[in-house]
What we know:
Blueprint: E1 4-9, H1 16-27, E2 35-40, H2 46-53, E3 59-62, H3 80-86, E4 90-93, H4 96-102, H5 106-119, E5 122-127, H6 131-135, H7 139-154, E6 163-166, H8 180-195, H9 199-204, E7 206-209, H10 215-222, E8 229-232, H11 239-250
Parallel strand pairs: 1-2, 1-8, 2-3, 3-4, 4-5, 5-6, 6-7
Amino acid sequence: MRRLMVAGNWKMHGTRSSVAELLKGLKSQEFSATVEVAVFPAFLHISEAVEALRGSGIAVGAQDLATQSAPGALTGEVAASQLMDAGCSLVLIGHSERRQVIGEDESVLVAKFKAAQEVGLVPVLCVGETLAEREAERTLEVVGSQLDSIIDALGVEVFTRAVIAYEPVWAIGTGLTATPEQAQDVHKAIRDKLAARNAEVAQGVRLLYGGSVKAANAADLFRMPDIDGGLIGGAALNADEFGAICRAAGS
C-alpha cells in the first residue's frame, strides 16, 4: 500500500528568523505516522532545517540540483552528493518555474533526475500543463511527453525510486485549483501510462497533486484513489495550515 506524502515547497521565501519560527511551528504539529512529511527550503536554509528537524520524522529536500552528481567546476550550482552530505533525502526536478521561467528543457531534467538517483536522492518529478494547453485539451499529451522524456532515457523502472507531482501550471499560486475529479483524471492517466510499461512500478509510485492546495480542499483531493498526497506551495509557509493539510492526508 502506498504511503501518503505531503511536501512543502518553500520556494524563494524565508529569512533566518522566519525560517527558525516556521521550523519551531512545524515541530509543534502532530503528524500521522501514516503520512510522510517533507519540506523543501531554499539552499541557504537546508542546514538549518536539517538540524532543527532532526529526530522529528520530517524529511528535508532541495528545490533543485546540478546536472552532475559529483562536485566540480560549476559555479553557482549544487551537486547531488553535496545535498546528500547536507542531510537531504529528496529533490524537486522540473518544477514549472524551472521549466517556464528558467528555461530548463527535457535533456537538462533527465540529467538532473539521473544525478539525483546516482547518489540516492529521491527525485520528485513535477509535471503539468499550462492553461492554454488545458483549454486546447492537450493536458494528457503534455504530461505524457514530460514523463516519456524520463522513461525513454532512463527506463520506467527508475520510478520505483521516485515520486511524481502533477502540478497544473494554471493552478500554481493563482488561487485556482483543479477539482478533485479533474486532478484524479490526470493522476489515473499517469498511472495508466506507467502501467502500460510496468504494472508493478505504476502501482507502487506515489502521485502527488500540487496547485493551490489548502486545508479547506485537501481532504477532498486526497480522497481520490490515485492521489497519494500533495506538493504544497504557499500554504507550506504557515505551520498550522501545513499541519492541517498533513492531518487531512492522515484522516
